[in-house]
């Protein structure tokens, strides 16, 4: 491809990455990839509850503002907000809260509305609720559900919509590609929300997946998401190679080829859904050395389209060639 090739130029939908704000600030190569390749951007951690709202009356906007400014000054990239309500990344003032359920509801509402209002007109879309279901399809018994009941999810969407009626609101989760029970539970929730007039506009599928995931499962997940009629965001894509956690494994040409084929299949299948529903694809970080996967797996891995020195991998070319 020509030297001015980039994902944002070659793909007929938005493509981006989750970024680490410290790397964005300090690593020129990292920032250059984000600038050149992406037209959508997500904060890997900087917009999570614990990062933005460490004390009840303290909000920390510095990193999130840096990201929004980066996006605005480098070609008006779309910013996708991740995430308002989740069971992780909660500060201890929330997890240890001793007040009653009305007071806890107010914490949830105030957090959502303060954050959404702060970024109104700057953050296009939000993962309003993240990972509320178990793989079995039951609601996760998070602190939010324990204190506020099963319908807290619907109220989160209403609160976000009140704060910014133009924001595109997503429910985000993982496992659509391997758990039909979870996929069905999410689809049923979306149908229920539509029937009740709860403002939901998109479904985010994380797609942290193993390279051995079948094409059939990937296609079932993408098409089921599209069948909801909502926008579809492949929101946290990475394709790991070492699901067996082999210590001391090294990255081979054969692995690169297999991974490239899987990236290509995801992109091709996504690109086949109706244009109005293609919200975009976001990889979870930029280069292999930046990925959360090795830490999470406890083993070496190379799950992203750029290598540790931000060179394009076979996966990169496979993404471009899939459309
Ligand atoms: C992960 C980040 O990548 C890590 O840096 C952090 O320590 C924990 O969270 N699903 C999500 C993301 O929705 O927010 C998670 O991000 C990865 C799994």
From TrEMBL:
GO MF term list: endo-1,4-beta-xylanase activity
Start and end residues of each GH10 domain: 1-322
UniProt superkingdom: Bacteria
Biological process (GO), any one: xylan catabolic process
Entry's EC annotation: 3.2.1.8
PROSITE patterns in alphabetical order: GH10_2, PROKAR_LIPOPROTEIN
This protein's UniProt keywords: Carbohydrate metabolism, Glycosidase, Hydrolase, Polysaccharide degradation, Signal, Xylan degradation
SUPFAM superfamilies, sorted: (Trans)glycosidases (SSF51445)
Name of the top EC class for this enzyme: hydrolase
Catalytically driven reaction(s): Endohydrolysis of (1->4)-beta-D-xylosidic linkages in xylans
Record family assignment: Belongs to the glycosyl hydrolase 10 (cellulase F) family.
Protein name: Beta-xylanase
Organism per entry: Lacibacter sediminis
């Amino acid at each position: 491809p020509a030297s001015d090739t980039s994902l944002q130029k070659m793909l007929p939908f938005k493509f981006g990455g989750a970024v680490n704000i410290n790397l964005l600030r300090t690593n020129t190569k990292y920032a250059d990839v984000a600038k050149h390749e992406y037209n959508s951007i997500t904060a890997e951690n900087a917009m999570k509850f614990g990062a933005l709202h460490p004390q009840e009356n303290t909000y920390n906007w510095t990193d999130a503002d840096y990201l929004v400014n980066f996006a605005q000054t480098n070609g008006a990239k779309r910013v996708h907000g991740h995430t308002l309500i989740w069971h992780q990344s909660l500060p201890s003032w929330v997890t240890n809260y001793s007040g009653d359920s009305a007071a806890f509801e107010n914490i949830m509402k105030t957090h959502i509305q303060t954050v959404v209002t702060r970024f109104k007109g700057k953050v296009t879309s939000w993962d309003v609720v993240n990972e509320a279901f178990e793989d079995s399809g039951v609601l996760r018994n998070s602190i939010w559900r324990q204190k506020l009941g099963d319908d807290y999810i619907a109220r989160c969407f209403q609160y976000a919509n009140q704060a910014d009626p133009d924001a595109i609101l997503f429910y985000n989760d993982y496992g659509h590609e391997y758990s039909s029970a979870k996929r069905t539970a999410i689809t049923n929730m979306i149908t229920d929300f539509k029937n009740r007039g709860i403002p939901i506009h998109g479904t985010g599928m994380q797609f942290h997946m193993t390279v051995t995931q079948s094409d059939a499962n990937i296609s079932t997940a993408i098409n089921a998401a599209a069948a909801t009629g909502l926008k579809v965001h492949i929101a946290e894509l990475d394709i790991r190679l070492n699901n067996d956690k082999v210590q001391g494994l090294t990255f081979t040409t054969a692995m690169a080829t297999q991974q490239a084929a899987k990236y290509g299949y995801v992109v091709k299948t996504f690109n086949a859904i109706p244009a109005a529903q293609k919200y975009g694809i976001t990889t979870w970080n930029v280069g292999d050395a930046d990925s959360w996967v090795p830490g999470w797996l406890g083993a070496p891995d190379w799950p992203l389209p750029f290598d540790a020195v931000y060179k394009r991998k076979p996966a990169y070319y496979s993404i471009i060639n899939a459309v």
